[in-house]
Design a protein that fits this description.
InterPro entries: Plant_def-hormone_signal, Polyketide_cyclase/dehydratase, START-like_dom_sf. The protein is built from three helices and nine strands; from the N terminus they run H-E-H-E-E-E-E-E-E-H-E-E. With 201 residues, it is of the alpha+beta class. It has a seven-stranded antiparallel sheet with strand order 1-7-6-5-4-3-2. A two-stranded antiparallel ribbon has the order 8-9. A hairpin with a 7-residue loop joins strand 3 and strand 4. Helix 2 packs across helix 3. The C terminus is likely disordered.
């Protein structure tokens, strides 16, 4: 994980990693029954442009393009709320029921746990944090480093390597799409305001 972060980024993000991501990233191997990973995505934008998209628990399809639709099961988006997402065709799943575990606006951290649905990823827990980093010690410009960690039970009949490759690919594409959405919003003059997107055209 450290190989994907510069020393400056690691120094800035270490408290967040230790508090929210470190339990998600213990040493794992093919001998264990769980698979964990931590993914990194840099976005050339401030947190105000990124966090409103990530925190929208009721609209994950905004940047998670493998999700076709989302329906809130309990109503509201407070911690403990559940959503039912419908997955696009072509994946080994159709639906997933997910419960919001953490929504920390101060530290910009969201976590959810998969609690049901038609898929093979049991006990899947994800933590995503949106972190601002100063681009240069002599500059006030900032960019975001988005960290997403997960832990999941290895499905029966699958290897640790296969499980990690599959989930890492999904998470990586989601984070790349998040960057694309943020940059497109910036290009078209859109800004985040709570859960809304406001454009100047």
């Amino acid at each position: 994980m450290h190989a994907h972060l510069t020393q400056q980024e690691l120094s800035t993000l270490q408290p967040i990693i230790q508090r929210y991501h470190q339990p998600m990233h213990p040493p794992t191997s093919a001998a264990t029954n769980t698979c964990t990973s931590l993914m990194v995505q840099r976005i050339e934008a401030p947190a105000t442009a990124v966090w409103p998209i990530v925190r929208a628990f009721d609209r994950p399809q905004t940047y998670k393009h493998f999700i076709r639709a989302c329906e809130m099961v309990d109503g509201g988006t407070a911690v403990g709320s559940r959503r039912r997402v419908t997955v696009v065709s072509g994946l080994p799943a159709t639906t997933s029921v997910e419960r919001l575990e953490i929504l920390d606006d101060e530290n910009r951290v969201l976590s959810f746990r998969v609690v049901g649905g038609d898929h093979r990823l049991k006990d899947y827990v994800s933590v995503t944090s949106v972190n601002e980093v100063i681009s240069d010690v002599n500059s006030s410009e900032v960019y975001c480093v988005v960290l997403e960690s997960y832990v999941v039970e290895i499905p029966e009949g699958n290897s640790w390597e296969d499980t990690r490759l599959f989930v890492d690919t999904i998470v990586r594409l989601n984070l790349q799409n998040l960057r694309n959405v943020v940059m497109a919003n910036s290009l078209h003059g859109c800004e985040g305001l709570g859960n809304l997107r406001i454009c100047d055209h």
